[in-house]
Design goal:
Blueprint: H1 2-27, H2 34-74, H3 80-87
Amino acid sequence: MALWALPSFQVMNQIAFAVCILVLLPLAIFRKTRAGSAVGFQIASYSFGVSLWLYGLLIAYSFWGVYGVVIGLMLMAQAWPLRLGVSL
């Protein structure tokens, strides 16, 4: 599932990054538009977080396979202990 969703998340992140740099960053300079800029950065951070989580899930899957990912997700640890165990 993550393999077919990854290219669309990559395009979405590129668009969100461009909006952050070209639109939201200049809006953060002015005091009246700073709150709207902060909300925009927060919304963009969700896009970055979801794609980072998917990348981590794919890395854990490539090292440990289905069983390692399922155990990691069942432990509700978002698969970071699996990546830590692989790096040791």
